[in-house]
Amino acid sequence: MSAPPADQTSRAPGAAFILKKALISAFVALVLFSLMIGVRTEAGPQGQLIYWTRFDDLAAMVAAVFVGSILMELLRQWWGPVDTVRVVPASVQSALSLVGRLVAPVLLVFTFLVPVLFYNERYILDLAILVLTYVMLGWGLNVVVGLAGLLDLGYVAFYAVGAYSYALLATNFGLSFWICLPLAGILAALWGVLLGFPVLRLRGDYLAIVTLAFGEIIRLVIINWQSLTGGPNGVTGIPRPTLFGIPLSPADDGLAALLGIEFSPTHRIVFLFYLILALALLTNWVTIRLRRLPIGRAWEALREDEVACRALGINTTTTKLTAFATGAMFGGFAGAFFATRQGFISPESFTFHESALVLAIVVLGGMGSQLGVALAALAMIGGFELFRGLDQYRMLVFGMAMVLLMIWRPRGLIGHRAPTVFLKRSQAISSDLVKEGHG
Amino acid sequence: MTHPLLAIRSLRAAYGKIEALKGVDLDINAGEIVALIGANGAGKSTLMMTIFGRPRARAGRIEFDGRDITGVPTHEIARLRIAQSPEGRRIFPRMSVAENLQMGADATDSSEADRASGLERVFALFPRLKERMTQRGGTLSGGEQQMLAIGRALMSRPRLLMLDEPSLGLAPLIARQIFDAIRTLNRQDGLTVLIVEQNANHALKLAHRGYVMVNGLITLSGTGSELLQRPEIRAAYLEGGRRE
What we know:
The complex is a heterodimer of chains A (about 450) and B (about 240).
Chain A lengths: L4 H6 L4 H22 L2 E5 L5 E5 L1 H25 L10 H28 L4 H26 L8 H18 L3 H20 L7 H21 L1 H4 L12 E2 L2 E2 L7 H5 L6 H27 L1 H11 L1 H6 L4 H27 L9 H14 L4 H17 L7 H15 L22 H5 L4
Antiparallel strand pairs in A: 1-2, 3-4
Helix pairs in contact in A: 2-3, 5-11, 5-12, 5-14, 5-15, 5-16, 6-7, 6-8, 6-14, 7-14, 11-12, 11-14, 12-14, 15-16
Chain B lengths: L5 E10 L2 E11 L4 E6 L5 H8 L7 E6 L2 E2 L5 H6 L2 E4 L11 H10 L5 H14 L1 H6 L9 H13 L5 E5 L7 H18 L2 E6 L2 H7 L2 E6 L2 E7 H6 L1 H12 L2
Parallel strand pairs in B: 3-8, 3-9, 6-7, 7-8
Antiparallel strand pairs in B: 1-2, 1-4, 4-5, 9-10
């Protein structure tokens, strides 16, 4: 198994290699950007085509790619190959593992305190609600993609089904949020099963394409079924949620009046915050519980090896369908929440962009990791807001951050998965066991 | 004699137009170790998979304990407590050893007590797995992965255990351990085993009876020692591999 010496030297590429790689990157950039940046076109006042060249910008971009490529290679060499094991001192390791164990509880406590800490900062509260919505969507999709390994690019469809279920039931029949919430979940789960059936035999890329199409179909149906959904105009006047029948309004029977405190619109925001927090935690709790049951184990096994699953007597049909249905149900809950928070929904909220965003959260977080998904949602949604000051460069910075993350943490922020079966008591391994076998 | 535990009668199976089994007859009696040997592409693995309904039999009959299982869905066949350790082991690499083992018991309605006693039995057989409990399956060595695959199959408390090439890619010493474990299972628990092997010498020494398969047909059968002594077994075994 000894590698030839030539291999050894090629592991640390020389200047020629770096230069060659940078030149290729620069050439690709030149080809790509020559039209995108090099030529600027616009419609003139009479509708004719006006264009002018921006070769200096183009040159700057190509130079940036060239230098960037060299820097990237140097950085990589400095870090060493991606798969090298870096020795970390034991003390640092134990400190790190302690921090790792504390992250989730600290984050949870902090989340509970957000409305208290930022009571007067509406912007932060709104942002926190948005982040939590995506945490919930991420956890929901995590069941399908992270656990069952079914690449679903149309998750937004279930979000839409949930949102429209609540919006239409509430505006047409006057049903309350708390009745509609489970209904929205059930309807979304139903659609999950409907999607599941035709794609049972598909895997990987093929599955992704069909789910992508499914997401678009739902959106197009919503746009075109004007009589039911209001088409592109959406549904307006969706009732706000009530605290089990008590409205959060300045009216006489409102919560503020009942408690004898002064009404503030922030009450509702805080209520919505805790509502989505509860829904997200429910998603998390159910997922964690399911993972320890045979059904959750079967999902993960299905991701690992479908053939082996069948050989072990797992019914892959029902396993896939339950994964789709469970994930869809949480998407439906999140959708109903979205509808009641916005008070207005339209097909524009349910584009492919949303599916991609949620999928990015799951992948960046580390497939199957609950904490990772939460952190990724925070980073994606919160980070996106953080870069707001960068205006048009926001997407660029963001894209770069994602690329870097995928280079250094290819399995996502939290790449390992926690085992679900533990020994009843800590096991002391007797020496006679260790001696046996030389595998 | 009572009816065999598994009876296969003129079984045919094909992948598209390529016929892999051309009328196979095979019996496995309860408490027996039966070896199925043959060269690459003889149809050994196909036979094992056809018993599980993938691919489906084109013609013929498979009976398990007197019941026709030719058309039964794959996952229900496993619930009849026929277990297999598939070719290439196919353990779940990202799941822990303990989870892998639990997967074996999940499909058959096993109580907690069944699971616990199943685990104990597997660990008694392969103490290595107990040490590796919390490790991910993918980090095990080849031999340990094979132990895990067999252990996982045992978790369903099978009446018939089918092993596809358990010695594949293992060092001779480890392969010997695996074969010893199979012998132990058979002697102690009376477990019925069908073992598919290219390693004819090992398999026939272990087995009570053996079948030789060439190009989708059973060409020879007999007791293990009988087959080992016959001059044509070597020839038949090599013939299938060398000729095109």
